Description:
Helix content: 10-25%
Number of strands: 7
Radius of gyration: 22 Å
Distance between the termini: 54 Å
Strand content: 25-35%
Structural class: alpha+beta
Order of helices and strands: HEEEHHEEEE
Amino acid sequence: xxxxxxxxxxxxxxxxxxxxxxxxxxxPQNTRTKVATPVQxxxxxxxIFDKHYTLLPFEDTNSKFTPTYDDVVKAERIVRExxxxxxxxxxxxxxxxxIRDHLCEYQRQYRGYLTPEGDSIxxxxxxxxxxxxxxxxxxxxxxxxxxxTVWNADVNLSKNTIERFxxxxxx
Length: 171
């Protein structure tokens, strides 16, 4: 019992000394760190995530790349031509033309990866609404539900095609 009391007393003393030496330890810390680069162009705005950003543990950075501004412009053009102009995006939408009508308002998150065949893919999250507080500039957001306000697409830059796209359902 005496040893426990001494240990707790020692911890309190050490903690007090640390606070005196470094008062910032007592202040609330904003642990969110911006890890993405802002990007903006005609009818798009968002964040490019570096190849070193890890979404899953043990990701191989050799199978990823950091998209450039030109990569983003090309990916946006492919999305517009193959999903929006053709109306294919409406195949997964409840409210037809909603995404087309609001396309320029979506915030985006861009992440690049390479297929085993060497194709360059940009994965794009489209988010309509205020996602700043959730860290749109610091982490890839995984959003369930949301309907047409949240959707994503994987764009193959090497083949100029849409590999996959998904419009979230309504919860």
